[in-house]
Amino acid sequence: MPQLYERTVSELSQMLGSREVSSLEITEAVLARIEQVEPKVGAFLTLTPDVARSQAIEADKRITAGKRIGPLDGIPVAIKDNMCTKGIRTTCASRILDNFIPPYDATVIIRMRNAGSVILGKTNMDEFAMGSSTENSGYGASKNPWDVTCVPGGSSGGSASTVAAGEAIAALGSDTGGSIRQPAAFCGIVGLKPTYGLVSRYGLVAYASSLDQIGPLTHTVEDSALLLNVIAGHDPMDSTSLKVEKTDYTHACREDVKGVRIGVPKEFFGEGVDKNVSFLVRKAIDQLCDMGAIAEECSLPSIDYCLAAYYIIAPAEASSNLARFDGVKYGHRTQELAGHIGLMEKTRDEGFGAEVKQRIMIGTYALSAGYYDAYYKRAQQVRTLIRRDFDKAFEKFDVLITPTTPTVAFKIGEKADDPLAMKLADICTLPVNMAGIPGMSLPCGFHENMPVGLQILAKPFGEETIFRTAYTYEQSNSWRNARASL
Amino acid sequence: MNPFLRSFCVIRNQRTLSDLLRHHKCPWVGVRYIHRWVCILNVEGVVDEMTLSKDDVRKVALLARLELDESEIENQGEHLNNLLKQFEKLQELNVDGIEPTSHSMPVFNVFREDVVRPSLSQSETLANAPESRDGYFIVPRIIE
Hints:
The complex is a heterodimer of chains A (486) and B (144). With 486 residues, chain A is of the alpha/beta class. Chain A has 15 helices and eleven strands. Chain A has helices spanning 9-17, 23-41, 49-64, 107-114, 157-164, 181-187, 221-231, 275-290, 306-321, 340-351, 354-367, 373-396, 419-424, 430-435, 463-475; strands at residues 44-47, 76-80, 118-123, 170-175, 190-193, 213-218, 261-265, 294-298, 399-403, 439-447, 450-457. Chain A is globular, with a radius of gyration of 21 Å. The model of chain A has no long low-confidence stretch (mean pLDDT 96). Chain B is an all-alpha fold and 144 residues long. Among the domains of chain B are: 1-49, no CATH class; 51-92, Histone, subunit A (Orthogonal Bundle), CATH 1.10.20. Chain B is built from six helices and two strands. Chain B has a two-stranded antiparallel sheet with strand order 1-2. In chain B, helix 4 packs across helix 5 (70-87). Chain B is flat. The interface between A and B is large, with 74 and 53 residues.
């Protein structure tokens, strides 16, 4: 019998519904698990056991009174520390926000609270979501529950670790270039980056506004749908949030891929991708074909230029977004005496880590007078080409399937001195953010005891096709039941 | 180098030919043609294309409001130059006539009625300020 903390949202939801277990029992089981394994994993930056217990008691009252809100009512979840939580410290894993207590909730937090979920705490990440390993955190690296000498991926590494380690039943992350999907792949769980504009970004501390999107990290595809049901939807507080009809994504979780056309973009299986990873992904595609899908190789020729374009666009937007950290309104302020410009310069020098400074510098340079056309504008034109490649592919295919990452999780410290190698960890996920399309990573096996993820992509608002394909594949194997032993 | 182009560089006080290209459209020669020249010049070591000096890095740091010490200037310079080298790949592509994409989704101006809505109170707004007094954020003296 699996422990309560090892179960999925849908299982626990059923157990809560049948009064087999209370939310407080689940919450206590998870809190005890956190106490036991957190010293090894280091997934949390802030724990809120008191908030969690009182929310669990409230949920139990509702359930007893027959006023259960929905499947998430009473389910303990973890939140990436770049989403504002009213009254709960929100640091973005940066020393510059060490003491920041948001006066308001992000829209996704309001929706999670309104759905009755229990908030366990805030999870570690790469500082301001800039990184692929959680090693760039201002508070130390998180560990991969499958092998604590390996990184959990990033930037939502803490969120992925909590779920994989049984320290939360589900978690929210954010994805700018792969920051949900890449750690999900490294930690053997399901991670979804929804279509840009499907989930409100209000209250998400911005990294690159045109690429950022919030999404769920869960054990199963169905759990992913349950969370997306809650967080998706138009929000007038985010002017890039789109007006789409409310959908119940769990309806798309059914075993049926008959006639689904799968495109297999050859650029994602070439040089730099571990052959063991591509073997498992191809095997999964073959399995889907056995179940009635039709696969064919295709090409996205502009993908080769994606990395360079991304590392202009994202830092350019970041350099503008992070201008707000000036030592005046919130966060760290230097103790040194300086004029008004000196105050900003010293505050930012003390508060930001090395990677954040690098991205601010390159972004500032790319946007500076005389260089805008050569870098930023050209990168945006390349972005158009990438989007066109995907549009063309989706004329012919319902989904595209690729590896989520070129390799399994790497060792802590292995790529710290090689920025290009680190960036290549995101090579399969970056194009998805550039095009704004949805993408999901889900487990497709193990290589040397470390999880491997495959990525399913669809056209904008094609989440249901993703859920259907992912669910069908997931039910054909037992990876979803695998749990890391800690 | 075409003597006319060289004199143009000097007149305009541009550090390198690529600076010149970025600042001015040259209608009389194709950009590709000039880039070939830049490559040749690189081989001869006359023009060090896309390389930022320490002073350039200091200038960017000032724009970014980052006070970097000497070792950081050095590291940042190296990092920036490495990245710029990677960005050169983008010059391979022909992007003539391609519209830039700033957002992947077609969202344009979003308007709402101009009415007062609930917002944070003054005390909530100031609660995280490193220094505040009498309802104000306190900053160092700006006007001498």
